[in-house]
Automatic annotation (TrEMBL):
The keyword Signal applies. Keywords: Signal. It comes from Marinifilum breve. InterPro entries: Bax-like (IPR053195), MGlyc_endo_b_GlcNAc-like_dom (IPR002901). This is Mannosyl-glycoprotein endo-beta-N-acetylglucosamidase-like domain-containing protein. Gene3D superfamilies: 1.10.530.10.
Amino acid sequence: MKQLFISLICLLLMCISCTERVVFTHEKVTPEYAEIVSKDDVRGFADTLITPYIYTKVISLRMLPVKEKKQKFVEMLLPSVLLAQHNLNQKIKRVEHIETWLTQHPNYIESDSIFLFQLFEQYKCSEISELKNRLKPHPASIVLGQAALESGWGSSRFFQEGNNVFGIWSYNKGENRIKALVGRDSTHIYVRKYSSIEESVNDYYQTIARVRAYKEFRLERSNTDDPCKLVPLLHRYSEIGEAYTKKLNSLITNNKLTQYDNYTIDDKYLQKETIELAQLNKFPLNNLY
């Protein structure tokens, strides 16, 4: 009996000594929240390092001189674009961590499983490779260009009243939305209303990631970040098709929006955060029997 007791104690100690702590480290952004009551509330850029301002209330830029209107619009929007890109890249990093884990272990960690399958549901896919493809963000120049076209450089009613930068429609009666002044045939048109510019940008990226019409765009995006190659594949974003992409390409080029593809969030607002995923026991439990 004494020998059996000692053996069990030894096995328990072996189990404890072989416990593996599994963690994941990512970079969390601490944003600044602000409202825009006048044009002077829009924070400008000193260099390519951007303070991650999230604007929860905006104003119409319609009455500003064209040059100033465009500048203020970019300053209002770019922080949210960079924040969305950062968060998507952090999700990809976590997915790749899971992918690496599965090449070395037969089973998911529970927290990883929950994280992954929530993304599968959100992005309407079931394979890790496809999920990474859908999560990949495209350059800020394209986002800024489409936002400028859809909101008239921040002049639209939807932009001012609902933070809706991309003119994304609403088909759900239960969500916050704004009725368009003009419908189509006898049908009313609604657009989504967002709590902030950041929420509008996030929804835009998710729309591009989920909708079948942008499948070719996503495939090309996995191979290149060149706006000249990507923009033509957004022809289904508008009813005018190729004319829309030509207009978008000209807007990006004429306003030199590609310069913003090299802007990043200031490191001062990034903080490393470690998530403990599991405490795993390496010792094979069948040795206890």
